[in-house]
Design goal:
1 helix, 5-stranded antiparallel β-sheet, mainly beta
C-alpha cells in the first residue's frame, strides 16, 4: 500500500488517532482536494504479516463535502487508504 501524504509529519500517527479526542489531519497530495479529517472513532483491527491495519471512521471536510462519513486505514504509523461510507 502506498502512503497518503499529509500536510505535516505526525509522530506516532496511529496512537494520536486512538488517544486524542480532538485529532485533526489534512492530506496534501498534489492532486488531492486537501481534505481535512475529524471526529475519529476506532472501528476495527486487521492482522497482517507486515503490520496490523487499524480502521477508523471519520468525517471528511473539503470543497465538495462537509462532514461526509468515511473509513480510514492506518498501517505502520502511515495513513494508507480512505473510502466513503455514505
Amino acid at each position: 500500500m502506498q502512503k497518503v501524504k499529509l500536510n505535516k509529519r505526525i509522530e506516532n500517527l496511529t496512537e494520536n488517532v486512538l488517544r486524542n479526542a480532538n485529532f485533526v489531519m489534512q492530506e496534501a497530495d498534489k492532486n488531492s482536494c486537501k481534505s481535512i479529517y475529524k471526529n475519529f472513532n476506532f472501528n476495527s483491527k486487521t492482522k497482517c504479516a507486515d503490520g496490523d491495519e487499524m480502521h477508523f471512521t471519520a468525517t471528511m471536510h473539503n470543497k465538495f463535502y462537509n462532514g461526509r462519513l468515511c473509513m480510514l486505514t492506518f498501517k505502520n504509523d502511515s495513513f494508507v487508504s480512505m473510502y466513503t461510507l455514505n
